[in-house]
Amino acid sequence: MTRTPELVVKDLHVSVEGKEILKGLSLEVGKGEVHALMGPNGSGKSTLANTLMGHPRYEVTSGDVLFKGKSLLGMATDERSRAGLFLAFQYPVAIPGVTVSNFLRTALNARLAPRAAGDGAPPARRGIAPREFRALLREQMALLRMDESFALRYLNDGFSGGEKKRAEVLQMAMLKPEIAIMDETDSGLDIDALRIVSEGVNTLAGPDLGVLLITHYQRILDYIKPDFVHVLLDGRITLSGGPELALELESRGYDFVREGKEAATP
Ligand code: ADP
Ligand code: MG
C-alpha cells in the first residue's frame, strides 16, 4: 500500500482582494520529506503559506487542501496548528512585553489544551507543568545552540533578522509539527545566521517532520538539502524536480522555466 502524503494541495485557486493569485496549484508533502518551493517575488509563495495556515484574507475559490486525509478549509488557524501544521513567518511580528519563554509556554498550552473546556479532563492535563516546560525549553535551546538568556527577551523586540528566524525555529522545535511551512526563513540573514538557522532546521528534520521550505534564492539549499524542488510561476507549480533544479534556477534564472513553458505550448 502506498502511503498518502500528510499534506495534499489539490488544484488550489486563491484570490486576494478579488485578484486571483493561485490558479490551480497542486503539491504533496509527506513526513520525512523536504520540499523547496521556489519562485520569483510576487509569484504567490506567501499566498500559499498563508492560505495553508488559514489567513482570513486569502479566499479559496476552488480546489482543496487535505491534511492527514481531512480538508483543512473549514478549519480555524488554531485547529490547523493543533492538527500538526506549522508556519514560520516571513516577517515575524514583535510582541513587546511578552517574553519568548512566556509566548512558547502559552503556545504549547494552547496546542495541548483540549478543544473545548469542560471536557472532563483534569486540570493537570490541560497544559504542560512549569518544571516540565522549562526542561523542554532548555533541551530545545541547547539543541539549537541558543543562549538561555534568549528566552527572557521580549519576542522579536529588537531582534536581528537572524534572531527572529531562530525564534521561529525554536517555536517549531517546541511545537513539534508534522508539517512545517517555512516562508523565506533565509531572507535577511547574513551567512553565519543562515548557517545557524539551517542547522536548526536540519536538527529538527527527520522521519516525523515534513518541511515545505519556501525560498527565492537557492543559497539556503546549500545548507538544507531538499528532496524535491518546485517552481511556482503563473499561480501554479510549473516545474518540479530534484535538488539539481535549484542549481539550474540559480544559474539560469526563472526565465528558462518561463521560456520552457512557452516552448512546450503549441
Ligand atoms: P511571494 O511570496 O511569492 O513574493 P505573495 O504571495 O506575497 O508573493 O504575493 C503574490 C501576489 O499577491 C502579489 O501580486 C501581491 O501583491 C498579492 N498579495 C499578496 N498578499 C496580499 C495582501 N495581503 N493584500 C493584497 N495583495 C496581496
Ligand atoms: Mg513571500
Q: Work out the helix count.
A: 8
The largest beta-sheet arranges its strands as: 6-9-10-3-11-12
Number of strands: 12
CATH architecture heading: 3-Layer(aba) Sandwich
Shape assignment: globular
CATH superfamily: P-loop containing nucleotide triphosphate hydrolases
Poorly predicted runs are none
Q: SS-based structural class?
A: alpha/beta
Largest sheet report:
6 strands, mixed
- Estimated helix fraction: 25-40%
Count of separate structural domains: 1
Main CATH class? Alpha Beta
**Residues in β-strands, percent:** 25-35%
Structure description:
By secondary structure, the chain is an alpha/beta fold. The chain has one domain: Rossmann fold. It is 34% helix and 27% strand. The strands form three sheets. A six-stranded mixed β-sheet has the order 6-9-10-3-11-12, with helices on both faces. Strands 2-1-4-5 form a four-stranded antiparallel β-sheet.
Q: What topology does this entry show?
A:
Blueprint: E1 7-16, E2 19-29, E3 34-38, H1 45-53, E4 58-67, E5 70-71, H2 77-83, E6 85-88, E7 95-99, H3 100-112, H4 130-143, E8 154-155, H5 161-175, E9 179-183, H6 191-204, E10 210-215, E11 228-233, E12 236-241, H7 244-252, H8 255-264
Parallel strand pairs: 3-10, 3-11, 6-9, 9-10
Antiparallel strand pairs: 1-2, 1-4, 4-5, 7-8, 11-12
What characteristics describe this protein?
266 residues, alpha/beta, Rossmann fold, 6-stranded mixed β-sheet, 4-stranded antiparallel β-sheet, 8 helices, globular, binds adenosine-5'-diphosphate, binds magnesium ion
